[in-house]
Amino acid sequence: MQSCSLLLMGSAVYSKRYREFLRRLRAARLEVGLTQTEVAALLNVHQSYVSKCESGERRVDVIELTDFATIYQKPLLYFVEPGVGSTSS
User: Fold this and answer.
1) Domain extents for the chain?
2) How buried is residue 82: exposed, middle or buried, by Cβ count under 10 Å (0-12/13-18/19+)?
3) pLDDT tens readout for residues 79-88
4) Helices (H), ranges, the chain
5) Rounded CA gap, 2 and 46, in Å?
6) How far from chain centre, in Å, is Cα 38?
7) Which of 19, 39, 54, 74 could bridge to 78 as Cys pair (CB 3.0-4.6 Å)?
8) By the 8 A CB rule, do 69 and 79 touch?
9) Per-residue pLDDT tens digits for 34-71
10) Is the pTM of this model over 0.70?
11) Which CATH superfamily is domain 2-80 in?
12) Gyration radius of the chain's alpha carbons
């Protein structure tokens, strides 16, 4: 029973961290003044791909994150490091 509660607790922490990642992903796009459509054109994908990545409907892998980081001129750590780019710290 204890391992189940630890799993659930870890899951809640993970969700909070992923929500923060998504917030930073969208904020980075807005900071460079690009629309989802413009980013999609640079990535050669549909606008819905960018939307789904930003909303969390589609998980972003490290290769895709590298592409976003390049377009947004941000280091990879901006998206994942605690305290970096956070409005609450």
Assistant:
1) 2-80
2) exposed
3) 998 876 555 4
4) 2-31, 36-43, 47-55, 62-72, 76-80
5) 44
6) 17
7) 74
8) yes
9) 999 999 999 999 999 999 999 999 999 999 999 999 99
10) yes
11) lambda repressor-like DNA-binding domains (1.10.260.40)
12) 15
